[in-house]
Amino acid sequence: MSEDFWTVLENEQTLENIRKRPGMYIGALGLSGFENMMIQLLDELLKLPDSPENAQLNIELSENQIILSLTCKKNWRVDQDNEFGITPHLSLQVLLALSEQLGLSIETPKKREIRIYQETALVKSANMASKIDDYRLELAFTPNQAYLGSKQVSYFVLFNRCQQLAMLYSGLAINLSEGSKQKNHLCYEQGLVEYIFQKDHALTRGIRPLVIRTAREDVLIQAVISKNPSASIRDSFVNGHLPIEGGTHMDGFMQGAVDGMNRFLEETNRMKIMTIENFPERFDFVLSIQVKRPRYAGAVKQKIRNPELYKILREAIAEEVFRFLTRYPSWYVS
User: What keywords does the record list, in alphabetical order (predicted)?
Assistant: First the structure.
């Protein structure tokens, strides 16, 4: 690991700013902020591997501590932004600033570096030869109760987010445990299709979902649309994060789906009946995009506001939906 990484991580001014105004980074103090911090940490750490689908994430909760490890086979980008502008520095700085104690180990096939911090101050460091061929990040921390409260983060909250991540990155293996109380292994080979099937009304589900994988103007797009008269799922993810209020990407996606379906109906001499209002009533859908520079509204990234995403998603989804319906017209009318 380069010295630049540790220098940035230990920047005193940044750590002081986080401790002075933690709400700007995690949205709130106490348990709510603790949960936000953990979700942000998981989201950003999974941008480290070149192939998160081949990585393994382990999370263990105890009464006063959380232990986490991330292992991958291929090289990762700890020292620099990846192609989508993600750096782990800030999430780790927030963790360091708001922890009573933090132990951090970063290991590559060449060497292992360990740092132990107490109230943001470095108290011990060590470098040694590596004994593995993988890339591994390990951390153990005790939350500072002055910022994060005295309660442990909810297992249920972490389980829900880990399940989402395992479905977003099909093949990613996640092990979540809380001592001997409970343990879950999460790995989903069908990705977003299983995301829909885990949450929908199965009895009214259509035979097969419409699966979209495409790219346009450096935006990677994955989506699943499933026919269901009892539809209730309308979720979207941006670089693995769930902006709960949607945004321009979701608006463009929905309009594109409506455009593609109405074009199909028109060209097959049917009445154009699909609208933004009735589309979510007839179809479950989940959208996942990777974008280089996402711009959010709110400290905890509640809504995407990149104006260009509306046009990109609308055009791409309309094209993919129309192409699918042209090949499989019975999907819509069945």
Answer: ATP-binding, DNA-binding, Isomerase, Nucleotide-binding, Topoisomerase
